[in-house]
Write a structure and sequence with these properties.
Elements lengths: L1 H15 L24 H18 L2 E5 L3 E2 L6 H18 L5 E4 L8 E2 L2 E4 H7 L5 E8 H13 L5 E3 L1 E6 L2 E7 L2 E2 L5 E7 H4 L14 E6 H14 L12 E2 L1
Parallel strand pairs: 3-11, 8-13
Antiparallel strand pairs: 1-5, 2-4, 3-7, 6-11, 6-12, 8-9, 9-10
Helix pairs in contact: 3-7
């Protein structure tokens, strides 16, 4: 019993030694990171080896673009270049022809790629996300519905394997592989997991069987560029105006 009273006394005593703390306020200060902010030479020296290594990796040249590529509406040569890369990569991945490929407009994170060298840095800037290619077989009627959805938003993004015109916010004169869209035909489509999962607002693909490749779109672009470099060819966006009004 004496041990019990001693233990109780000890607990009460220790508890009394610690008064409760109350937060009375929170403060912060903004520090603008501008060119006027003085550099810390010690930190710069510490980071130099890491930065030099990263710069060497990021400045590796994968291809040469023949023309300036632009993010525009309704037609985007930059978006079409990316869609071309996805069409090529998806076809190679499943070892069968893929009919159409898409790049959503908002996913293009820079407005232009200058004519000339295309580096790893450029590709990371245009596609910083770890989105992957998804390959789906869809009916022409659903493809038309999707194109109408894109047309209502002004077009943009990128398309490969097809072309269309926008009239009254609808897709008209749709050609797939140079032929008129057949609503009853099945087409193989490559798109991003983001778009297929309804991230852009279109939910028509979510219930379909999907080949989720885990092949990053960024890696597809890199592989597409490397293919051109190995063949000694410049990047060229054929049929640059694929979406017109």
């Amino acid at each position: 019993m004496k041990h019990f009273f001693f233990f109780a006394f000890l607990v009460v005593g220790l508890g009394a030694c610690h008064s409760s703390q109350v937060v009375t306020g929170i403060g912060f200060k903004d520090y603008a990171v501008t060119k006027e902010l003085k550099s810390d030479s010690t930190v710069l020296l510490m980071l130099k080896n890491y930065r030099d290594s990263v710069d060497k990796n990021m400045d590796e040249v994968f291809a040469v673009s023949q023309d300036e590529l632009l993010k525009e509406l309704p037609n985007s040569t930059l978006g079409n270049f990316l869609a071309d890369a996805y069409l090529w990569a998806a076809t190679k991945h499943i070892n069968r022809p893929v009919d159409v490929a898409f790049m959503n407009h908002g996913g293009i994170r820079i407005n232009r790629i200058a004519a000339g060298k295309v580096t790893r840095r450029t590709i990371f800037e245009v596609m910083p996300f770890d989105n992957a290619l998804v390959i789906i077989e869809i009916k022409g009627s659903l493809l038309k519905t999707y194109l109408d959805f894109l047309a209502a938003d002004g077009g943009g993004g990128g398309v490969s394997g097809l072309s269309y015109q926008i009239q009254d916010k609808k897709a008209v004169n749709v050609l797939v592989g140079g032929l008129s869209l057949d609503p009853n035909k099945s087409y193989i489509m490559a798109n991003s997991d983001y778009a297929v999962d309804g991230g852009g607002g279109f939910t028509g693909f979510k219930t379909l069987h999907q080949n989720r490749t885990n092949y990053l779109q960024r890696d597809a672009i890199i592989d597409y560029c490397k293919m051109h470099k190995a063949a000694g060819k410049n990047l060229v966006v054929e049929q640059p105006k694929r979406i017109t009004k």
